[in-house]
Design goal:
Blueprint lengths: L15 H35 L2 H4 L3 H37 L1 H19 L5 H29 L2 H13 L1 H16 L18 H7 L7 H8 L5 H25 L6 H9 L17 H20 L4 H17 L2 H5 L4 H13 L1 H55 L4 H16 L2 H11 L5 H30 L3 H9 L1 H8 L14
Length: about 500
Amino acid sequence: MNNTPDLTPWYAGISRYQWLVLAVASLGWAFDVFEGQIFVASMNEAMPELLPPQIAALDNTARQGYLAFYNNITFASFLLGGAIGGVAFGMLSDRIGRARTMIYTIAMYSGFTFVSALSGTWWHMAIFRFLVAVGVGGEWAVASALVAERFPKRARARSLAIFHATSVLGTLMAVAAGAFIVAERDIAESIPFLAGMGLSSWRLGFVLGLAPALLIIAVRLVLRSEPEAWQKARSLSKEGEQSSKQSEEKSQHREQQSKRGEQESRQVEPKRLGRFADLFSQELRRHTLVGVGLASVGLATFWGAHIYGKDVLRQAVETRYIEAHTSNASRESNLSREANLSREAILEEHFRDIKQWEMLGMLLVTAGGGLGLLMFGPLSERFGRRGAFLFYHLAGLVAALVVFQTLSEVNHLLIFLPVFGFLTLGMHAGYAVYFPELFPTRLRSTGAGFCFNVGRILAAPILFLSGWMQRDVGLSLRDSASLLSLLFVLGAGLLVFARETKGEELPE
């Protein structure tokens, strides 16, 4: 036996068409993430405008609790929409093909992000975010299956890690929108056909969500045919259905049939494409449950902890500005109503700078997260899929507790936020690498979409709970995020039941 390691670069022999497929799938995913992150970049400006007027009259602590509550409801509606879209479009993709389904998902998420700009109250935003997420969840399921089926085994982990890491581009676009559009409150007045309409700058960020619709043209031009694995699965399914039908017709003409004959006629059971119930067959049940569990942990910690790294920096900057304008006496005592009004005036005066500091925090977390996503591929090739997941879960817990419980100085946060992003986001690339490896071709998009997006359903109640704790229990953002970060321990425990797929061919 030859034990000499294969030193061929993973990218050797990859065709131009395969690179184009990766590029189109990655662009779809990047815009997908932009549609989700544009609300994160503007929620501190959008939600106060969408809440009832009586909440604006509350003191700062109570008002922040309500903002956290309704923001988390909106996040939860996004997760639920993604779950429905992932399952529905995943099944559709297995039945009608990857390219056609991807077009439908892109049209849906770009159209409803644009419509979100018209929100008049918080529940309008929650409904529109739900509909955006239906398309967002579907696009990931379709694109990850497409890349997995187009690339050979030796390049699969790296290509899927690259695919998932392009989510960083979507977040960076949201950061740019936040820093240069949302932070400029008078920007609408500088645009001729918008001047005088009184549009808030955050609404323009959502208008940008229509741009990804142009990607539909690229999908139609580049994805000329479906992957061979999907075409083969479809052919086998059709043959199985035809054979089953013929067998049924023959059996109808037999008045006397032996028990053995009956068994043989029933054995010609077609392996149908995208059948949801098959995910819970004896063969696949454990894979499905492990995938759902890992995704639930990742999504709950992403929306409940990871995205708030930027807000910790924002709070530190706000404290710096307030301390620069407030006497030692007022800082050491409980703020009176007059002092609280003064605090609001200080923050309003420095709104643009504070918003750009917040976007810098989002940029740092995203940059670190992008490196973490890219590194999942090499780490999983070196230590296996389970080993890479274990590293990110345990290290992510430590990083989250450091940010939310120990750091409060601006300079310290600037240094550590990229590390925080790296360790709390990197595992998400594993979903794109690992989930398609658990399911056969006829169920690959259905299975990957089910795991990733049903994880959203299970994560949604956790975000409701987080919002409730901040509004009604009075828990701080830091403490709420710290509690949710403990879910990383659950994710590490699930790996005991996970199958190792390193070095294996995709199941047929």
